[in-house]
Design brief:
The protein is of the alpha/beta class. Helix content is 42%, strand content 15%. This is ABC transporter substrate-binding protein.
Length: 287
Amino acid sequence: MTDTSGLGKILLRGLAQRGYVVGQNLTYLARSSMGDNTRIPELLRELKASGVDAIVVVGFPSALAAKSLGVPIIGALGLGDPVETRLIDSLAHPGGNITGISDVASALTTKRLSLLKELSPNLRKVAMLWNKDDLGMTLRYGASAKVALSLGISVQPVGVRERDDFKDAFELMNSDMPDAILMVADALTNLNRKRVFEFAIAMKLPAIYEYDFIVRDGGLMSYGPDLTESFERTAALVARVFEGAKPADLPFEQPTRYPFFLNLKTAGSMGLQIPPTMLALADEVIE
């Protein structure tokens, strides 16, 4: 998340609004494991050695590795359920050195599946694609699968651990074709999202994703937290830490805005007709 990336710019703008400006009284250092979780501890040690006052992390593996670092940690995105994964004691009183933004997987899954059902009324089986090596996302998958089953939708579990596993994942779906795909987002699946797009388009499978940037990049549709809001609120939490607050005393926050994005160009390439009711529901339609 560099200072020139979209989310980096939102974070830095939010900090500037609170009086922390790069080049004046703020130094910003960015590190990325590029989906290789084995590199995360080393990158975090580099940041700690540089004397940072706080670290913003994305994803459960980064948050877990940072838990014992002794530096205030603010999780902006992708932490899953931080209580269930034992990152924190409770949402209201995190304890330890981690606070941030969380969301409720079961409620979001219900909405995502209802959108898939509206697009494909005969939906019976959904493939759920997720990173099996990410505990946060594995628990998110489990919560999502329970919701699907409660709605009478069977689940095809498609777990991956590395880039090469996507070929096997596509072969699995080819051998037992689902009616739709739900991709659980983390660094690994996000980095390989275009391969998922290509497969879904070739097989004419409706697919729903968790974040709007995936739809802007060619995915069919997404329903999830507003990333602008999430990173603005992350900036507010960082500012509070700078001012002396301890993450242990800062309650985890939940997003309030969950936009629905549709990509009509992708729908057209799949021969999908989007119902007018879905178009009316969309917060943004990409043409």
